[in-house]
Design a protein that fits this description.
The chain is globular, with a radius of gyration of 25 Å. It has helices at residues 7-13, 28-52, 57-74, 81-98, 102-111, 113-117, 135-139, 148-179, 187-201, 206-210, 213-243, 258-261, 276-284, 287-309, 322-362, 384-410, 415-418, 424-455, 464-471, 492-501, 506-534, 543-560, 569-573, 576-596, 600-609, 615-636, 639-671; strands at 255-256, 271-272. It is mostly helical. The relative contact order is 0.19. Helix 2 (28-52) packs across helix 22 (543-560) and helix 9 (187-201) packs parallel to helix 20 (492-501). The longest helix has 41 residues, at 322-362. The chain has a two-stranded antiparallel sheet with strand order 1-2. The chain has one domain (7-16, 23-668).
Amino acid sequence: MEHKIDKELDEFRKIMEVPSTFEEGFRWSALFGAIFVALLMVPGAIYMGLLAGTGIGSAAQWVTVILFIEVARRAHRYLNKSEIFVLFFMAGSLMGAATTGGLLWQQFFAQSDAAAANGLIGQIPRWWAPPVESVSYAERTFFHVDWLPAIFMMLFGSFSGQLSNLVLGYGLFRIASDMEKLPFPMAPVGAQGIMAMAEDIEAKDAKTAENSWRWRVFAIGGALGLGFGAIYLFLPVISAALTGTAIQIFPIPFSDFTGKTGMYLPAVATGMSWNLGNLITGMVMPFFGMVGSFIGLVITFVANPILYKYGILSNWKFGDDTISTIFKNNIDFYFSLHIGIACAIAVAGIFQVVRSIIKGLSKNAKKTKGSWSDVPKGRGDISSWTIILCYFLVEASYITLSVFLLKLHHTQYDWSRAWGYWDRDIRNVFIVLLFLGFFYTPLISYVTARLEGMVGQVVQVPMIREASLILSGYHGVAVWFLPLPVANYGTMTVFYRQCELTGTKFTSIWKTKIVLFPLILLSTIFFMNFIWGLDRIPSVAYPYAQKMWELTAANNCIMYSSTMGEYSMFEQAFNVTYLLAGMGFGIALFGGMSILGAPIMLTYGVVRGLGQSLPHTIFPQFIGALIGHFYFKKRLKLKWRQYIPVVAAGFSCGMGLITTVGVGVTFLSKAVIKLPF
């Protein structure tokens, strides 16, 4: 029987076509754009991530693009689609590096209550964070000799990760797109937002561009973002900077109702996120994915009180807030259940890939697929041996460095003893590193590349890293902080598809990365140090970090405690019965949905909404999906899929721009030097 094409995914396939020519996108504008983002947008992104957990990634991208378009227009020059795509990619890369937490997270975790409660203080390796006795914590600075190993590891991880992601992701794209001819249905969603301005600019007519639907739609989204951002984020930031007290009309990051609803819904986290961006996100994402998330949320609301009644969710107590409820439920039940469900998802994803390969082999006689040499002219491709050499060098460097770091840690950082040191623990970890780097990583990357190409989904084998390290028999926690050679490069294939859809030469991306690398590192380290110097992190000045980081630290300690050689939170949380129940539920869900012919997005949505996802964000996203599907889509038909990414881009731009102004005022107010007279 022929595989049914999901109607919703089919809509995404028809949005854009691959152009016949490709252009160079790396120009001086990209370099100036990188400097602009590094100096003005990166500090705002770091600050907003701590404040509200939102960041300004999309806003920085669109502000950069709009600014350079207008500057170029007044210089009687027009940026082509490729130049705009490179600017967008460059700004996104800088923002991604700025919002990962990085050194700020490391200094927090090394001093956190969760680390202390689980006996990790004193065992965290020096290459990840200095000992808590270091004066750098009291001085709140990364520009200290004790932080040099952590900064070096940041340099190594950033360089190796960027190199391998770009080159190996490209190789997988060649296989999935050029050879297998897969459609990549979700790629147009990102590319369409970038094309919102490019096609109009190419008309070389400012009046025509301003009157086009794309500019109008983007302006509507920008106005919404400016208006809402002024109330939601700008007001708290500017009031805190000027008066010392933050005024919040809408609580950040969410309103928590769990303490009050616990009487009626025991062990259920309830609340509401007032961020309007969730509503727009629900409109952008596939409708059935949002419906599935809401169904999963309803299942959780029904199941948790039952599980509490029968003593499975035994740690929850009336009066617990959202954070405590989620963590306790995770320990009691959902940690193991989600592992089982994730196993079912992985099996389903691998099954889809294997089935498609078998079907493809059976049709080879009827349909000829592409070959490695069958590539569009002028796209900027590289040879296969370059990809293979890069892969082996990157994986070998990860393994070599990880083994040497363990030797240093085991010899109390005695370099003379470390070179020749070798014991059972290090030998077992070395075997695990070989498995992860040269077997699991290429396998899961290829499977994901095919799944992204077919249905726009990512497959991950759950807990493979954690299970490998636990089964190695290693004793201690240092192994959890190693730069492990495990990654999923298949997700990068969607980016290359977007690059192809916009007619951008691949060489433009690689040149941009070479320029970006030093800027990313210098700007993120400098501004993280500056922000840490302003106030303790987390603290009341950063409500999101104060509320969520301790939960993240506690969840991380569940795994870290598994190799400490004594009874731990991991043993309390890991339950084979619940894991098997999760696998059974996942397999039944996928099988039932397949028999009923339900959209695949519905299935993944149910899994997303089940158990531990914050209901505070899922409910407004579901409302947005309903409004988009039953009102706007009926009125605008397929054009709705073209409009809404542009609205979302404009909203992010407006909201991020107004909050960045507030962050700038905050920096100025706190950087003022008060004279003693």
